[in-house]
Amino acid sequence: MPALTVNGKSHSVDVAPDTPLLWALRDVIGLTGTKFGCGVAACGACTVHVDGQPTRSCVTPVQAVAGKKIVTIEAIEQDPVGRRVQAAWRDLDVVQCGYCQSGQIMAATALLTAKPRPSDADLDAAMTGNICRCGTYGRIRAAIKRAAEKTT
Amino acid sequence: MNEQLTASRRKFLQAGGGLLLGFTLPGFGAETPKRNEKPPEAAVGHATRNMTQESSGLAPNAFIRIDRAGEVTLIIHKVEMGQGTFTSLPMLLAEELEVDLAKVKLEQAPADNKRYGDPLLGGQVTGGSTSIRATWKPLRQAGATARTMLVTAAAQQWKVDPSTCVARNGVITHQASGRALNYGDVVDAAAKLPAPKEVALKQPKDFKLIGKPLKRLDSADKVNGRTVFGIDVRLPNMSVASVAISPVPGGKLQSADDKKALAVKGVRQVIKLDHAVAVLADHMGAAKQGLAAAAPTWNDGSNATMTTQSLVAGLRTASDKQGAVARNDGKALDAIARAPRKIEAVYEMPYLAHATMEPMNCTVDLRGGMCELWVGTQVPALAQGIAAKLTGLPLDKVRVHNHYLGGGFGRRLEVDFVGLAVEFAKQARGPVKFIYSREEDIQHDMYRPYYLDRISAGLDEKSNPVAWFHRITGSSIMARFAPAAVQNGIDGDAIEGAKDQPYAIPNVRVEYVRHESPVATAFWRGVGATHNIWVVESFIDELAAAAKQDPLAYRQRLLQNTPRMRTVLDLAAEKAGWSRPLRAMEGKRVGRGISVQFAFGSYMSQVAEVSVGPDGEVRVHRVVCALDCGQVVNPDTVVAQIESGVNFGLTAALWNEITFDKGRVQQNNFTDYRMMRINEAPVIEVHIVKSSDAPGGIGEPGTSAIAPALTNAIFAATGKRLRKLPVTATSLKA
Questions:
Q1: B289/A130 touch (CB, cutoff 8 Å), yes or no
Q2: For residues B646 and A3, what is the distance between their CA atoms, to the nearest angstrom?
Q3: How does residue B44 score in pLDDT terms, banded at 50, 70 and 90?
Q4: A10 CB-contact burial (10 Å; exposed 0-12 / middle 13-18 / buried 19+)
Q5: What is the pLDDT of residue B28?
Q6: How many Å apart are CA B537 and CA B722, to the nearest integer?
Q7: Which end of chain A is more exposed for a tag (fewer CB within 10 A), N or C?
Q8: B690 vs B210: CA distance, rounded Å
């Protein structure tokens, strides 16, 4: 039975080892902030951090992340960068339906952690994997830049 | 239309302490609620029953509750799918009620078509860009009524004239003495007062909230993962199910291997229907694996040979015949035949999927003579209705728990997936959450119809159009969704933007040919207008080109009698710098295109700037939009909806089409049903014309105006006129 460390807590999950992390998070542990969008790593809605790296949980088997540090949207406010990203999202009213935004925020937080002052090209490279069907891209770009400005 | 909306009946009741105000958004042709019918399992509970036992008048269909702490709850049937109604509706109420916006909570009304029917749509529907249009006046009247009652109650307590008291931020103050009471202090007294017959509404100059760019009330929970969408529901002992539906419309399930499915760890049950199969499991991972192991096979049935080509051939043949006449000014066909010059074209638009980010899903608990549904739907009462029909339960035994929608775009105006979930649930052990995989979501959508349009015009010696003929051929969504709305063969949605094309042309004839196929079709953000505005605005561009005239100037001349249209057209052109040449781009062809429209009650013009690479790859760099949507409630929401609508419309126009082969949808997932990405999104500028006219809709116009601006820009860049969407259907190689 794989043990997962999610948001600082250990969970033993009774699922097959090849079960995608997404379903262990949502259906077994009960953290539903991470979303299902495509199941094939084509939309980014399921993005979580595994040892700090943005990871598509819909194609990541639980056995591959056992013992690693998993962070989901529910705990991103404990991360100073994540907190700034969330604040920028609120300041600019980025969200519409909001369904993709957990993944967007996880991807943006990972970007700003790795590159506190991203160029537009950096931003494109980090965020092209995350689809927003409401088309909030202009505001996502502006919010990432705002969060970057607040980095000291 | 809005002028007819009045809060015709208001009642105040004591609701276990506090004040409850019921008011009516009267319907247009909607069935009048019967006085003695059994009330719904309303969130307002006991008070609702009291109210419906009152002896006269219409039952209220929206409520305001103010508790002893001064907290305000607005209970209304509209849903939030990103369009911002959960912020703008409370703004309308708070403006007149004189409370802080943060004090207003919005609660979903229970499913009940009769009671909560939309005045514009005649049912419990959130769609058609109508939420603000339908509630603009009654919500403010309800707020003013409640405020008047509260002030009167305070004045009576102080034994002063109510006119000497003012209400601000939920506090009533007697100006002369400085005495003050909170709303919560007087709710019980106010509840015993009669309602005023008339209330005066504020003049626009006195608005404190309306017209201000206020922050969305749903942001905080949407940035920390706490918002609960339908797909996030969790119930004790719930199974999660993956479903497979016959890939061919009308096909049947031939086999599914239960044993292999049940051998998968975590799988609990396999349920087979005539045309679908579900695997229920502890979690979705096991359910999907179980479904793969079950390896369903199908009898494809009579539609097994259906292809896009066969479907379009059917439309083409149907379009040769005369259709129902939607508009007939003068003698268009004669005038075209006699005109010195005739231009004609055929335009085609593909089937489109909605591809909401949250795939279709519905959770059902069917036991003990009750059916409970947890879902995100634009039509709670239709969800309730289909569950009642399929289970044989009375409506009051079906409870719909509606949720935030992870995108709607018209897909969640349909309840096919709710019905399927209920059918499965009849055989399920315990509550089940049914989730479509992305592949099922795309392959079992109900699609924006394929349209085939024949259009022609006659030009005089000066190349001015003297006659216009437009025949639209496609399936009718209204005939299925609201059959009573289709009269004399005219589907009002299918012709929106075509019948009322705005150009001053003496002879105009618009026809509609309804042609159905096995492909299920449905509303899709902008629907009729997305199709007709593209055709009309492309064709007027063709006429301008045939006349060798500037497409802006050509339109301006033909729009002299429509000032609001001209205003947005001129404004978009000015802000886009239409008169200045576009900056050249190394190795690329660049162009600018314009469109103008009246749709969903709003006037809009867009200018798109594109570049086309040698390989034919189109990039949209900038979109300038000018609009007049009447009185703006929340300008930031308007801007957000235009940004959203433009990107949604561009995605479809550039890349999207659903195609069929061997009876099956050929697209699977975002890998082959392409979505716009952040690096492909243009800069979008929105310019709003100040207006105090009644509000127009804003959720859809951005989508319908962009496709012609895009393809007209591609024409300007390449000289190629695109008469078929998506853009990728035509080679634009240099």
A1: no
A2: 45
A3: very low
A4: exposed
A5: 32
A6: 12
A7: C
A8: 13
Residue reference for tokens 């109420």:
B93
Beta-carbon separation of A98 and B683 below 8 A = no
Which residues fall within 8 angstroms of residue B29, CB to CB, at 6 or more apart? Answer: B122, B484
Q: Is the pLDDT of residue B39 over 60?
A: no
Q: Return the pLDDT at B700.
A: 95
- % residues pLDDT > 70 (chain B): 91
A93 contacts in B (CB within 8 Å)?
215-216, 219, 636, 640
Measure the CA–CA gap between B279 and B258, rounded to whole angstroms.
9
Tell me the pLDDT band of B21, cut-offs 50, 70 and 90: confident
**A44: closest CA of chain B, how far (Å):** 10
| B235 interfaces chain A, CB cutoff of 8 Å | no
Residues facing residue B279 across a β-bridge: B242, B270
Residues of chain B in contact with residue A42, where contact means CB-CB under 8 angstroms, are: 669-671
Answer yes or no: is pLDDT of B30 > 80.
no
For the cut 90, the answer to whether the pLDDT of residue B195 exceeds it is no
Q: Can you tell me the distance from the alpha carbon of B472 to that of B21, in angstroms, rounded to the nearest whole number? A: 47
pLDDT band of B123, cuts 50, 70, 90: low
Cα dist. B128→B351, B410, B526 in Å?
19, 9, 8
Chain B (606-625) residues lying within 8 Å, Cβ to Cβ, of chain A: none
Of A22, A99, A122, A141, which to mutate for an interface test with B (greatest number of B Cβ within 10 Å)? A99
Provide ipTM, 2 decimals: 0.98
Q: In angstroms, how far is CA B545 from the centroid of its own chain?
A: 34
Rounded mean pLDDT of A9-18?
96
Please name which of B493, B489, B709 lies closest in space to residue B599, comparing C-alpha atoms: B493
Which residues of chain B are within 8 Å of residue A86 when distances are taken between CB atoms? 223-224
B134 CA: distance to closest CA in chain A (Å): 21
Per DSSP bridges, beta strands B683-688 and B618-628 are parallel
- Over residues A51-62, the mean pLDDT reads 98
Mean pLDDT of chain B: 90
Min Cα distance B349 → chain A (Å) is: 20
Q: Which of B227, B283, B356 sits opposite A15 (nearest CB)?
A: B283
* B345, B350, B356, B357: CA torsion to nearest 10: -100
Assess contact for B442 and B667: CB atoms under 8 A.
yes
Per-residue pLDDT, A2: 76
Average pLDDT, rounded, for chain A: 97
Closest residue in A to B215 (Cα) is: A93
Cβ-based contacts of A123 with chain B (< 8 Å): 678
**Whole-structure pTM value:** 0.93
As a whole number of angstroms, the distance between CA B680 and CA B653 comes to 13
Residue in B234, B648, B677 nearest the CB of A128: B677
pLDDT tens-place string over residues B206-218? 999 999 999 999 9
Among the partner-chain residues B220, B222, B669, the one whose CB lies closest to the CB of A40 is B669
DSSP character string of B333-397: HHHHHHSSEEEEEEEEE-BB----SS--EEEEEEETTEEEEEE--S-HHHHHHHHHHHHT--GGG
DSSP string, B105-140: EEEEPPS-HHHH--TTTSSS---TT-HHHHHHHHHH
Distance in angstroms (rounded) separating the CA atoms of residues B618 and B410 = 28
Strands B239-245, B432-435: pairing is parallel
Whole-angstrom Cα distance, residue A40 to residue B74? 41
Q: How many whole angstroms separate alpha carbon B157 and alpha carbon B381?
A: 43
Contact A98 B651 (CB under 8 A): no
pLDDT in tens, B521-546: 999 999 899 999 999 999 999 999 99
